[in-house]
Structures are given as structure tokens and as C-alpha cells.
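input
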Amino acid sequence: MPLGSLVHQLQHAALTTELAQRTRQGQEQGQRLCLCGGVRVARALVTSSLARQQERSLLVITPTLEEAGRWTALLDTMGWPTVLLYPTSEATPYEGLDSTGEIIYGQLQVLAELLGGQEPLVVVASERALQPHLPPRTVLQASCLTMGRGHTVDLTTLAQRLAQLGYKRVNTVEQEGTWSRRGGIVDVYPVSAELPVRLEFLGDELDKLREFDPASQRSLDTLEQLWLTPRGYAPLIAQALRTAIPPGLQSLLGDQGLASLREGHTPKGLGRLLGCVFPQPATLLDYMPSHGLVVVDERRSCLAHGRQWVDHAASHLEDLQAGMDPTAAALVRGNLHLPMTTCLERVDRRAGFDLAELDTAEAHPHHVSLGARSVPCLPNQFGKLGKLVRDQQRQRTHLWLLSAQPSRTVALLEEHDAVSRFVPNAQDRPAVARLLDQGTPVVLKAKGVADLEGVALPAWKVMLLTDREMFGQQSLASSGYVRRRKRAASRTVDPHKLQPGDYVVHRLHGIGRFLKLEKLSLGGEPRDYLVVQYTDGLLRVAADQLGSLGRYRASSEQPPKLNRMGGSAWNKAKERARKAVAKVAMDLVKLYAERHETRGHAFAADGPWQADLEGSFPYDPTPDQLKAIAEVKQDMEAPRPMDRLVCGDVGFGKTEVAVRGIFKCVTDGKQCALMAPTTVLAQQHWRTIRDRFAPYPVKVGLLNRFRTAAERRELLQQLANGALDVVVGTQLLLSKGTVFKDLGLVVVDEEQRFGVKQKETLKALRKSVDVLTLSATPIPRTLHMSLSS
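output
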């Protein structure tokens, strides 16, 4: 929350108090105020300061969901304890398409927070959230299930209650909206929670509640209470319909759907009946605290988008009712969409104000100008930046500098006679206040700040500078795609995760089909056995001998052929595999022997461009990063071909090590290839390298399956004639048509996700090529080959 201290300063300003008074007076007089003239950052800062000064929760309405996402990321930097994005669907309720689980679960997570009464908090939503689409607040709150430690709970009743709430019973809880039971242990994954919860009972008494990891199934933190919302709104609609089946429902749902409803299930398409079951469906506004502030950003755009959606909804309702008999048509009511003017009139009855970027009287009849203005962008021009800082100091402006590389920012400003100070803890308000009172600019660390730009608020005597103005780039941490490590699956079979019909592999007998888990008494003591079918009979494997079984995995989706117990086919298959592995190993030994004897290209020492590129990195490199970079450069400058592994967890800076190595390669006249296991990851690497190399005459290309055939041919031709310096791609780089004019470096990301032959094919393109491997989850072979090559 790097901007929390700035909001704290603004909320105690006299001008903010005056604005708060004017908004209250306008509300009392029926004249909703509009704060105009400011980019999104300025509007967000002023909005946060007004809400925090009055200690109120905040609802921000934007024209689109995309804009709501930007507001959410921005407000999350401004010191709020909770900032929530409320997702909405663009589909109308009359299309017969239920919203996806992701949207419903996201909505329920927000509604659960609002029903819990935790304040202050911020909710950001598009104008769609003002349309009726929710059950009444009292209905949803009454349907929620609360359990705490020491409570008496009948497990049979609990199972029935979970079914009523729409939760599905499974063998293993791994997804939201599911539950399972093993004796006195009940696992449930609330749709409104980040993690599932394990309930441990002693008889009917709830003894322990603990969160657990759905991947490893290991218990984590202890809880005192569980609050469970329905899995969606459809179970509430179904429950209400079962109490009294209305005429026309059979025509609407069909015989099968109505039978499913009567049996206790929730048929699809019930969302359009929300208005029938609840004559006054609710909006997000009905769930917000009554004393909270409701802010509408760009009212005209909200009105335009809302009217367009309402027109679509009315058209869909008319088409739907036209094809129904009158009794069925009466069930699909038109109270799930309202004129957008009516929705905004409801907003106007709540405390709050409007926002607009344009500062014109025509934009709003009761407007107040914020007087905010943009800050000049002076990338790496610290002479001019130093002068800007000194000029603002003379005008007694409080300067805030937000950077991903704060120490470097302070040092560069000092070189140009501009004194500033880095405050490591952005929440250290006394330290920040002392520096500002002395007229010293405050430098704060930017952490994952997305879409942030500098702004000046002359009326508040405040100016904010970011990396965009100082270095000409956004924080690299604002990338939308984040790789997450996945836990490696165990090779040992978990009998609780096997389904009848799954294929397994026995160490001695080969491929079989799992049938069931049964308990047998052989030798007087009952034991659990896995029953596996083979072509010539059944094999029973004791539960304590599961090490001999493994799951069957193959690249083909075709079902495998079952082996015979003790037959020769399985042994022959293993022998063929051994020979294939031995051949690959011999090829590797030969290749590495040739690489060891071959004299490779010795890259030149760093030049001024290399120093300039490394200086543009918007972070302070860690000691481990600096060590890895130095060792990579040392290997590249040596005459022997490099084969180095850079190992580090996600977010530890492996990509920057590769970027500097790639730049060293291309500035020495060589080409570079970077291979990633997925299209998304290749796209991310391409954007990063393209943006970092933009100021230099370096051409970077992307080769993936989304390129047209003509684009691929052109790119491969540029590789062959040397017009392309860097190519980023997936396995397509291994195709026979890929020819380099002068390849100098190969970078392989997430090597463990490629086969050995794939990687070695890339290496074999040139036996003198340098190879850099990046990995967050290294396997022993990778480490061994890098150490011994």
C-alpha cells in the first residue's frame, strides 16, 4: 500500500474537509456534486481521502468491468484494508445462460464480506451491478450456514443442508462448491473463501476447524468459525419453487427438468426465474452499508453502457415470451432489468458524488474542478527531473516519488543536486511527515503497482512522480500473467483419488484397469485391497504395497491395451524403453564430448550499451541476481561453450539474468533463441524483451501457433538471413525449417517441461552454442547435466 501515506496526508487537508462539506450540502439540496478534471489516479486519491476522512465504506461504479479492474488495482495501493472487485456478466438474465461459476463465486465472496459487516472496505463494480440480479439481502443471509468450534452438528443433517446449498459431494475436495466426508471428518470448499476447510468431529461435536491446501490436502491454519454461503443463487430459487410448483413451470423446464427439481436437484436455467421467486430482486446497492459512499465514475458513459444492455435485455425477454405459452411466459418477469435512469436515481438517494475526467460545465450541472494536471514524462533525463524537483520545492509542494528502484532514484537525483530520501516502510507516517515538513521529497518502493502515472494536485500542494515519468516504463511487477508453481504429483497411487475404470501400471505385470477397493480377511486380519483387472484375471494389491502401483499416463488419449499377468509383453515393452533411453544417453554423451572439445565463441566484454540497459532495470538487483549475472557473463566470455542452469523460485529475477545475457549476445553480433513451454509464457517473454530492447537497434520476433503461415515464413527467412536478432517461441523453434545465420545463445525456460530430446535438438543446432537454462523446479538430471557438462 505505497500510497496509503499520501491518502493520509490528503484526508487531513483543509481542502478535503471543504469538499466533504460541499458534497454533504449538495446531497441535502438534491444536487449531487461532480468532481471534475483529473486523470484516474487523481480521482482515486481524492475519492479515497474523502471516504477515509469520513470513515465510510466506498462503492465505486464504473462504465465497464475492465475499467473496474483498473480502479481496483489502483485503490489497492491507497491504504484500504479490503478492496474487492465485484464481477458481473454481460449476458442478460433472459438468455437462459446461467452465469459462470467464476462470476457467481466472485460475487458471493464480495457479498459475504458485506454481510459480515467488516468496515471500512471498498467495492468496485461496473454499472451492471446496479441492475436487479440478486436475491434479497435477508434471504441470502438467512440461507447461510454458520458452524463454530464446540457446536453440536448432526452429520446427516449437515449433509442434507450442504445439498440444499448446492454443494456437490465428491471423493476429494479440490474445487469450490464441493464437499466430502470420511468418517468424522468433513471437507468443504466454500465458494466465498480462498481455501477449503476441514471439519473434525468427535461424535456430533465440532472439535476442530482448519483450512487446508487443496493440492496437497495438508491442514493449515486453525479457524474458530465457518460461514458458508450457498453455491449460487439457483439453489435458493430451486428451494422456493419446490415449496409451491407454479403453473407453467413444467412447460418451461420440461418433464426431465421438473422431475430433477422435485428430486432435490437444481436444473439449469433457473436464473431467469429469480424475478418470479423474489418479486423485488436486489442490487449490489442493497448490500452496501447504508452510511457508505457511492461514487459514480463517468456518469455519461455508465448511462450509455447501461441503456445498451437494457435494450438487449428487453429484446431477449420479448423473444423468449413470444415462444412460450402464457402460463410459462408469466414466470419470466421483466423485473430483472430497469431503465438506467431509475438505477442512477437510486444511487442519487445515497451519500456520494460523481467523478469525471473532463473539466467542463457541460459534463455536469454541479461540478467542482479538482485542478489536477499530468506530469511531464522525462525518461532518464535526470537533469530536467532534478530541476523539476527543485522548482517544486521552492513552491513548497510536497513531492512523492514512487519507484521500483528507490535507491537508484535517490542516487540519480543527488547527482543532479536534488535531495530526496527513501522511506523503506511506506506506513511510517511520522517519518514521512517529518521529511515533507522539511521540504524533502519522499521516495517509496513501488510493489506491483499497475497502470499508475504521475499527477500534480496544485490545490493540495502535492505532486506524485512514478517510474513512467522518471524511467519511461511501468513497473515490471504489473504484468497480468503470473506463473505459479505446481506441486509435483506423487508417482504412488492414492486409492482415494482412483475412480473405477482408471488405468494403473504394476511394476511386474504392466497396464491394468482399477475396478474397486475392497476389504478382505486373508490370514485372519481384514485388510484393504485394490482390485485391478488384467486380460487373464484379477490382481488384488494390498494397501501397504501401493509402491508397486502407479497411475498410467500417456500423451495419447487412446485407451491402452491391457497386459497379461506375468506375460512377456510388459517385459518386452520395458526392454524397448531401456534401449531407447540408452540410445538417448549415448547421443548425449557424444554431444557433450564434442562440446567439451569444441572451441566456442568468446563474447566481448560489456560495452556502454550493456551498462545503459542494466541501468534501466526498474529494481535493485539482489546479491544472488548479481552473482548469477556475473557468472553467466564470465561463461559467455570464455572460449568454451556455456551450459549453465539458473535456478530460483517464481519472482526471484531469473528473467532479468536471461535478458542481460541475451543483450550481451546480440550486441556482439550473434543471434539468440529463447524457448518457452507454453504460448502464454512465450508471449510474456517476448513482450518483456521487446520493451527492454526498444531503445536499441535490436529486432525481436515471436514464433508461435497464433502466427499465420505467411508470418512464420517471413520470420524464418529473417532468422536465416540474419535480419532477426532474437526469436522467442515454443516447440516450433525445433521444426526442421528453423535455420539460424549465426546462433550464439539458446535460453530454455522451464526446461523440466520439455523432453530431453527436445532440448538436445535445440542444442545440436550448433555444437558451439552457449546454453542458458532457467528453472523454478529443477529435476536432478537438469542439475547434474549442468554441473558435469
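quick obs: Residues 475-491 have pLDDT under 50 and may be disordered.
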